[in-house]
Amino acid sequence: MSRVIEHARREYPLESCGLLAGKNGKIIKVYSLENTEKSSSSYLMAPEEQLKVFREVEEAGLELSAIYHSHPHSPAFPSQRDVDYAFYPDSLILIISLMDPKAPQAGVFQIENGKIEQKGLKITV
Ligand SMILES: [Zn+2]
């Protein structure tokens, strides 16, 4: 989790975003991607970077486990936009909140057909 939080802090006050890959439910790789929107309230992963990561993950025999992004000024809960833009219902969504910069909060969710469900995720990297 530290690498994801580190990335969120580096991009602050903009949202950071990236992908988490692993095996058997365990996250072993963090891919930090560029937020092409350069916004503090939304993100869009660079499509060519995203494609490159998809390929790397497949070649390494891993699976795409989660998509992460940060909320610099709001809670670790999906925004309406996050719900509207949840294009990968099979992937978990990890949100890091930096509302309290000294105590980052994390939330893991699955969003399917506009329904938000809280999940758990073990991240050791
Ligand atoms: Zn969000």
Q: Could you please describe the fold and organization of this structure?
A:
This protein is of the alpha/beta class. The protein has 3 helices and 7 strands. The protein has helices at residues 2-11, 47-59, 80-84, and strands spanning 17-23, 26-33, 63-71, 92-97, 105-112, 115-119, 122-123. A 7-stranded mixed β-sheet has the order 6-5-4-3-1-2-7. A hairpin with a 2-residue loop joins strand 5 (105-112) and strand 6 (115-119). The relative contact order is 0.22. The mean pLDDT is 94. Zinc ion binds at residues 69, 71, 79, 82, 95.
Mean pLDDT: 94
C-alpha-based Rg, rounded: 13 Å
Bound molecules: zinc ion
Taken as a percent bin, the fraction of beta residues is 35-45%
What strand line-up does the widest sheet have? 6-5-4-3-1-2-7
Distance between the termini: 6 Å
The assigned structural class equals alpha/beta
Please summarize the sheet with the most strands. 7 strands, mixed
Number of helices: 3
The coarse silhouette is: globular
Which bin fits the share of residues in helices?
10-25%
Order of helices and strands: HEEHEHEEEE
Count of distinct strands: 7
Poorly predicted residue ranges = none
Secondary structure: elements and pairs:
Elements: H1 2-11, E1 17-23, E2 26-33, H2 47-59, E3 63-71, H3 80-84, E4 92-97, E5 105-112, E6 115-119, E7 122-123
The structure holds zinc ion (ZN).
Residues 69, 71, 79, 82, 95 line the site of zinc ion.
